[in-house]
Design goal:
Blueprint (H helix, E strand, L loop, with lengths): L2 E5 L9 E5 L9 H10 L1 H7 L10 E5 L7 E5 L11 H18 L4 E4 L11 H16 L5 E6 L9 H14 L3 H26 L3 H13 L3 H11 L4 H7 L4 H9 L7 H10 L4 H10 L9 H11 L5 H10 L8
Parallel strand pairs: 1-6, 2-4, 2-5, 5-6
Antiparallel strand pairs: 3-4
Helix pairs in contact: 3-4, 5-13, 9-11, 11-12
């Protein structure tokens, strides 16, 4: 998937490159910097000594040595001094410089820590906004898998208002799965009983059933609906799959196979990218054999964003991460 947020240890990831939130000396330190140097072994420090340091907002590359990653990209984020000393521009530059350097070396997958959010004191919520903004802008023009790694859940802070709004929506709409299954069973029993009685009373002509079946057979597939919606929105294929956080190879499969069966997360990702209203998103889900359910917290969260006209993919995935749900995309 082009962009995702995870919890974990960045030194254990099998990606082409990991980013080190370094200090200007590049000679190691505490936090992520120290952990990367320990995991990479002494040869990393030896190579770093030849680089003559690194200025804030810039990036330099070394080999990964004993790390699973082939490369380490060292970047220096700003120290937080209240926000009036160019911190945001410098932090943005740290991400951009790292991504540009990765692209120059043919990196296909890269993992970042949340730069400057540790001992450098950058407020975590603001640091996250800068990270997501810089990464998102880069991915609109490049093909690369990017992972943002949080050391633990406490490292992640969703905006308080958004968090409380989503939580309130979940509290109002989420239905316990066991209760939902019982209610659905009762509904189906009543529905089927009523249909059987009505069929017996009215002796519905078989021609009507044949017409309904023909209508279903002629109905467009998920792939056809997706391509039609892209054209209607005046988007290019690339604009759509990038906004959907879906990689090019998957989109090519969907385009070339009229009967492609996507995952529910992929369908919703395209619905978000196309900024479909709720009834059209539900129609697209139906084409792929899915439906939104209030017994599924993931569905309730995505429904909240669609109903409120909020189509920022990264904001949605940040929220899903906060509530321990899978993220949208491939």
């Amino acid at each position: 998937m082009p962009f995702r947020i995870i919890r974990g240890d960045i030194t254990t990831l099998r990606v082409d490159a990991i980013v080190n939130a370094a200090n200007e000396s590049l000679l190691g330190g505490g936090g992520v910097d120290g952990a990367i140097h320990r995991a990479a072994g002494p040869r990393l420090l030896e190579e770093c000594r030849t680089l003559n340091g690194c200025r804030t907002g810039e990036a330099k590359l070394t080999l990964g040595y004993d790390l699973p990653a082939k490369y380490v990209i060292h970047t220096v984020g700003p120290i937080w001094r209240g926000g009036s000393h160019g911190e945001e521009a410098l932090l943005t530059s740290a991400y951009e410089s790292s991504l540009e350097l990765a692209a120059e070396h043919g990196v296909g997958s890269i993992a970042f820590p949340l730069i400057s959010s540790g001992v450098y004191g950058y407020p975590k919520e603001e640091a996250l906004n800068v990270a997501v903004g810089a990464i998102g802008k880069f991915l609109l023009a490049h093909e690369m898998d990017v992972t943002l790694v949080m050391f633990d859940k406490d490292s992640f802070v969703l905006g308080k208002k958004l968090f409380s709004d989503v939580k309130a929506y979940i509290d109002d709409n989420y239905v316990d799965a066991a209760y939902s299954l019982k209610a659905e069973s009762r509904r189906k029993s009543s529905l089927f009983g009523g249909l059987a009685k009505k069929a017996a009373e009215e002796a519905m002509p078989c021609q009507m059933l044949e017409a309904d079946s023909l209508s279903i057979e002629l109905d467009e597939s998920f792939s056809e609906m997706l391509l039609r919606k892209i054209d209607e929105k005046g988007m290019t294929d690339a604009e759509c799959y990038k906004k959907a956080n879906v990689d090019r190879k998957l989109f090519s499969k969907i385009r070339s196979d009229k009967y492609y069966s996507p995952s529910k997360r992929t369908v919703l990702a395209f619905a978000i990218a196309l900024e479909l209203p709720l009834h059209e998103a539900e129609e697209m889900l139906k084409k792929a054999g899915f439906a939104l359910s209030h017994s599924n917290k993931f569905d309730v969260i995505v429904e909240y964003f669609i109903k409120n006209g909020k189509y920022d993919m990264f904001e949605i995935n940040e929220t899903l991460f906060e509530f321990d749900q899978a993220q949208l995309g491939a």
